[in-house]
Amino acid sequence: MRLELRGLVKAFADGTRGLDGASLAIETPSFVALSGGNGSGKSLLIRHALGLEEADSGEILVDDRPLSRCLAEARRRIALVFQEPEHQILGVTVREDAEFGPRAAGERPESYAPRVDAALEAAGLSGYGPRLCAGLSGGEKRRLAVASALVSEPELIVLDEPFNGLDWAGASDLLEALMRLRASGVGVLVVTHDLEKCLAHADRLVVMDAGRVVRDGSPAELWDELPSLGLRRVEGGVGRLGDMSWLRAVEAAAG
Ligand SMILES: Nc1ncnc2c1ncn2[C@@H]1O[C@H](COP(=O)(O)OP(=O)(O)OP(=O)(O)O)[C@@H](O)[C@H]1O
Ligand SMILES: [Mg+2]
């Protein structure tokens, strides 16, 4: 699928211009890292992409159709994991939360159960099904938000700061799950300050500043500019960026 945001402008009543002509196109499969300073417009941009906010001007197209005309369909095809995972927990137990979407859509348990199992496993939550959501740690809640987003088998998954609060093992498990998704043909858009966690695996790096997309290119292309964009460079250097052998191995395994 192709998601295109064209010249989005969003001003708030207090005069803040949250978005000031932001444009971005995402095609699947791909792994795109979206970065930029606090308040640069990253969360706002992706909220617009899901139709959760309405722009003052600009266009949002899903496979060349205006988002407003295919909103329900777009929300099935594109999953969003919010910056604050608490905001999207809807179930009492982990399994109930993961099942919430398909149950609300009237799907039968025998049809969604395998997808729920697979999503919990992909997010590192196998065996957590009966646990109470309220008792999960911050990192576990984040993984649950990822699992619940995966249950609908989206074509594009958008994650806002998914590595926040995850320990090293949790972050690398999540990254691996995202890479598997990418290899299986899904689009992954990760909003993150933690470029060192994912830049080596990203096909593209997009940088926002003051409500606009100011850079869009391969990590290798943007490597020299990262410090001047206020972004830390990845330990190991650009050479590591070129090493995509892990991806070919994952792709081969996925057939
Ligand atoms: N409801 C709102 N009312 C007023 N201003 C808003 C509102 N929502 C967002 N903004 C402003 O829009 C700008 C972009 O916000 P956004 O949340 O997209 O930043 P961000 O890039 O995600 O930052 P962070 O890295 O801190 O998460 C900020 O200046 C923010 O204060
Ligand atoms: Mg944000």
Structural overview:
The chain has 255 residues and is an alpha/beta fold. It has one domain (2-254): Rossmann fold (3-Layer(aba) Sandwich), CATH 3.40.50.300. The protein contains ten helices and ten strands. Strands 6-7-8-3-9-10 form a six-stranded mixed sheet, with helices on both faces. Strands 2-1-4-5 form a four-stranded antiparallel sheet, covered by helices on one side. Helix 4 (109-122) crosses helix 5 (138-150). Mean pLDDT is 88; it is low at 236-244. The structure holds adenosine-5'-triphosphate and magnesium ion. Adenosine-5'-triphosphate (ATP) binds next to helix 1.
Q: List ligands, each type once.
A: adenosine-5'-triphosphate, magnesium ion
Q: Indicate the CATH class.
A: Alpha Beta
Helix and strand run = EEEHEEHEHHHEHEHEEHHH
The outline comes out as globular
List segments where confidence is low: pLDDT < 50 over at least 5 consecutive residues.
Answer: 236-244
Output the CATH topology.
Rossmann fold
| Mean pLDDT across residues | 88
How many separate domains make up the residues?
Answer: 1
